[in-house]
Amino acid sequence: MAKEIQLDPHCEAILQEYRDKLPWMEEVARKTYDTLKTTLAAAGLLVAALEYRVKSEESLAGKLELKGGKYKSLADITDIIGLRVITFYIDDVDKVASAVERLFEIDWDNSVDKRKAHEIDSFGYLSLHYICKIPDSGFRMEIQMRTVLQHAWANMNHDTGYKSGVEVPKRYLRNLSRLAGMLELVDDEFSKIRAELTDYRRRVRALVASGNLDDVPLDGDSFRSFLDLDPFGQLNKRIASVNQAEIHNVPLMPYLAVFKGIGCKTLGEVADIIKEYSEGAYQIATYQIGLTDLDILASSIGPQDLCIAYILKNGGGSAGIKLMFDSLNGPSESNEMMAKLLLEQSSDFPFMNQ
């Protein structure tokens, strides 16, 4: 049975003010949520969660029962309206905070940066809490910002009763403190890894743009940057000219696995294949489409026939071509049939006899 809350007339008046203003507060919370969501999306900030709530009447009554005497009116309670932003990375907390500062006037005297805490068991409480002024109202609201791991830790502590005033055996406290330290390290490492990956991608783009392809390992980031240079464009245009066809652009990232499968380890080696096997690719394409009336060709025709030319010339045979088709389209009997047909046709390709 719920405990009956006893309030003095002053606190009852505050509670009545809450009831009167509840529709307005719910509208403010929702509009703030929408504004913050739009702002973060426009800034390219991906967050794990964005939540809002208006404190329930029961929760407010309990608060007033405990310390209602410190509040002159409802406007003195800063967390009636609350929002929480949960980020994936530590450094994104500061980016979200910067966005909040641009959107709202911050009550710095009542805002708290709990991340400055140094207690060994404080990890789950390292939120950044901003008290924001609601324009033209005299009221304020609270916006909390913390990471996914900090949020999970805080919820776990809440569920286990830790920090609830109940005495916890020392051996459990030691284990909780160790776990908190591990999670804080993980939080730091995630942000560090992301920063290093961002720096790596920046360096890769610079190397690709400079043409120093021999120094660039072949991976997803480097191949994507390489594709931005349209490396197969010239070959595709030459092939399309056979039928005066148009080129329809399709995703070419699947060819990363194909080039890796035939042994390429750097972008320089991919560039070498383009240089050395473009004539062979052109001959294969001409044989395939020369007697057709195809007037639209996929942009994948160039890299596909480059790889076929390389595999045939280097003794990969029908097995090698089948592996390529399996990688691109998934395993099927038709892949084996196409591979065998290309091997049979290969004697008609002049580049095979050079």
How is this fold's topology laid out?
Layout: H1 9-42, E1 47-54, H2 57-67, E2 81-87, H3 90-103, E3 105-106, E4 112-113, E5 128-133, E6 140-147, H4 148-160, H5 170-210, H6 220-227, H7 233-240, E7 246-248, H8 255-261, H9 267-289, E8 296-298, H10 301-313, H11 317-329, H12 333-345
Parallel strand pairs: 2-6, 7-8
Antiparallel strand pairs: 1-2, 3-5, 4-5, 5-6
Helix pairs in contact: 1-2, 5-6, 9-10, 10-11, 11-12
Main sheet characteristics: 6 strands, mixed
Portion in helices:
55-70%
N- to C-terminal separation?
92 Å
What is the H level of CATH, i.e. the homologous superfamily of the largest domain? Beta Polymerase, domain 2
Query: Structural class, from secondary structure content?
Result: alpha/beta
Number of strands: 8
Number of domains: 2
Structure annotation, total helices: 12
Structure in words:
This protein has 354 residues and is α/β, with parallel strands linked by helices. The protein folds into two domains: 9-166, Beta Polymerase, domain 2, CATH 3.30.460; 230-353, no CATH class. 56% of the residues lie in helices and 11% in strands. It has twelve helices and eight strands. Strands 1, 2, 3, 4, 5 and 6 form a six-stranded mixed sheet that branches. A hairpin with a 6-residue loop joins strand 5 and strand 6. Helix 9 packs across helix 10 and helix 11 crosses helix 12 (333-345). It is elongated. The mean pLDDT is 88.
What would a concise description of this structure say?
With 354 residues, this protein is α/β, with parallel strands linked by helices. It contains 12 helices and 8 strands.
